[in-house]
Design a protein that fits this description.
This protein has 74 residues and is mainly β. The chain has a domain at 12-60. The chain is built from no helices and 4 strands. The chain has strands spanning 12-21, 26-35, 44-46, 58-60. The strands form 2 sheets. Strands 1-2 form a two-stranded antiparallel sheet. The chain has a two-stranded antiparallel sheet with strand order 3-4. A hairpin with a 4-residue loop joins strand 1 (12-21) and strand 2. It is rod-shaped and about 80 Å long. The N and C termini lie far apart (53 Å).
């Protein structure tokens, strides 16, 4: 594959090696690069307003590199 892509699931330092070969020779190059974590952005949506006795529904919209733990306080 001339121009591949790869999905990295976790942050960290990774090494990639490219080997190219033609009829006369083989050459290799290696590079290290960093995959940064996705910034933690905390948020939620709700079905506000609700009436007394109604059920409030809260939908977590938090994004970021996992695992992520959650704690709600009502």
């Amino acid at each position: 594959d001339t121009n591949p892509s790869h999905l990295y699931a976790m942050p960290g330092a990774y090494t990639v090696t490219l080997t190219a070969t033609n009829a006369y020779e083989t050459d290799v190059t290696t590079a290290t690069f960093t995959v940064n974590p996705v910034a933690l952005t905390v948020g939620f949506d709700s079905n506000s307003p609700v009436t007394v006795g109604g059920t409030a529904v809260f939908t977590n919209t938090t994004t970021g590199t996992g695992p992520i733990s959650y704690e709600w306080d009502f």
